[in-house]
Task: structure prediction
Amino acid sequence: MIEDKNQQRTQLSDLGEFGLIDHLTKNFKLKKGSTIKGIGDDAAVLNFNKKNIVVTTDLLVEGVHFDLSYVPLKHLGYKSVIVNLSDVYAMNANATQITVSIAVSNRFPLEALEELYSGIEMAAKIYDIDVVGGDTTSSNTGLLISITAIGEVETKKVVYRNGAKPNDLLVVSGDLGAAYMGLQILEREKEVYKVNPNNQPDLEPYNYIIERQLKPEARKDIVKLLNDLEVCPTSMIDISDGLSSEIIHICKQSKVGCDLYEEKIPLDPQVISTCEEFNIDSTTVALSGGEDYELLFTISQEDYPKIKANPNLSVIGYIKEEKEGLHLVTRAETKIPIKAQGWKNFNG
Amino acid sequence: MIEDKNQQRTQLSDLGEFGLIDHLTKNFKLKKGSTIKGIGDDAAVLNFNKKNIVVTTDLLVEGVHFDLSYVPLKHLGYKSVIVNLSDVYAMNANATQITVSIAVSNRFPLEALEELYSGIEMAAKIYDIDVVGGDTTSSNTGLLISITAIGEVETKKVVYRNGAKPNDLLVVSGDLGAAYMGLQILEREKEVYKVNPNNQPDLEPYNYIIERQLKPEARKDIVKLLNDLEVCPTSMIDISDGLSSEIIHICKQSKVGCDLYEEKIPLDPQVISTCEEFNIDSTTVALSGGEDYELLFTISQEDYPKIKANPNLSVIGYIKEEKEGLHLVTRAETKIPIKAQGWKNFNG
Result:
């Protein structure tokens, strides 16, 4: 679908290990004051001068987390960084550094890795982080990307998942379900392409949801916004597995219940129309779709005036006592228990 | 060879994602003062109170870095941690935390992952580090382990690869080549086993070199020793790819040359006898074998009296001016240039 059969191919075995790492990272500039030494020694050296640091790591596996038949490598590199930064922001921290390790089979030429790293570099530039380390090795099959992200936060400002209190408001940034519906479109077009490779699909009506799938953003802006508004969330998590899964994490760790209002869940019009086209319930998509990389957090009711006018934030429910349980309040005003989804990855 | 066909098998899909992570890490206790929050949130939270921190990461891939037909999973878990800690110690730092991510196919039952994590836990306990994060996902084939290690070091004590000066002494800890020869024994026994599965090999004569391959140690003790002796190396690196490759790194980054004395290279008697058995030159094995996880460093000549009596340390050469180049001085007193080895991983 997007592969250019005529592209230049340089075999990875033509380069030594150090040639490859040097080559891929030569454009990566160090800008953060906390980075003392980047790539090129046994380890990177950092200094955060008494601030707390946060560390998070994620693995992305070809065939499990991404399908290279419709994911451009540059987008993949960008997204790999974003999913990690999102976890840093969910601690109310500023992302400062990442390490990037890849395992890659011989079917990838150097030019493919250059594409991947150009996406990583773009994300590093836009989110103002340094790439300070990594490892590059061969794999027997496919591509695997492992990223560790580091951030800094003042000791008093760290936000965990376990601080939600009864009567707090449940708030979400942006809108939900778009990345999942974008994936449905890409999967459908892949099947069409298999049958008729000359078919040129019109993806214009789906541009927003496809971008949310292929090139998501992490909500660095929301961390800054909350700081500017002097709102410190009582708990926070990023939405990677779907709204219901993240609500369960917050409620379980905070030992509270909640009411989530179906009518308050923010949905983009493209999500609604595409759900209608696929005959899928949009609320189900928002609850279980995942990969939104929005922030879900709770705030004290007294902070409500500070956020109520903001178009980036939606109040979607209330925290309740633990004994009241977790419920979705539907448009028909019935209450349905919120349940955990199974882990799809190991069922395949 | 070592697989127990009757072992209990619990399918990974029987557990949820969170059940699996909780299960595998439930025995992991946090002990470091610098760990504020470990596994269980979007990110770990650490505080190093003005000290420099070092960060390093490594990927280990089944079929590239290890062969499960003769590597017990517990040993693999242990070794995966060791190879990362070795990089931390090579910065003259103390290792404090790791994150552990694994991608694993459905052919691994839960009990296999428990074995792997028991080795990780053992290494964490022995080296006094906290496991503070990680990711667990499925892979289409095999097992992949990605570990990021974090350590702390006083700002003035960080040792890089680029500080070696002409006339410095080149020093190595322990002995070299054993892990490579251990691998040769394991590979040979694997072939014997294929032909006759009932054959019980006598591995006793090779116990040291097999242990060096399957259960290497990182030289935390050497970092402490040098500190106690008040010796601060001018440069340091750990030996993962073989002595010649590491010497080249130090000389290239320090812009110096060196003379390495063949007769001074420390070899265990089992390495010498096994090299004779395989008809391989032991110096070649020490130069190119790799996986020793010893520390290679340079010190000022004035520090020589402090280390000369120590049985853990061998002076193996001298740093020279860059224009004099890098040479091995053989037992016959001829000089041979030290050359880089190719990167085997991408040639397969």
Residues 178-195 of chain B form the longest helix (18 residues). Chain B has a mean pLDDT of 90. The first strand of chain B starts at residue 35 and ends at 37.
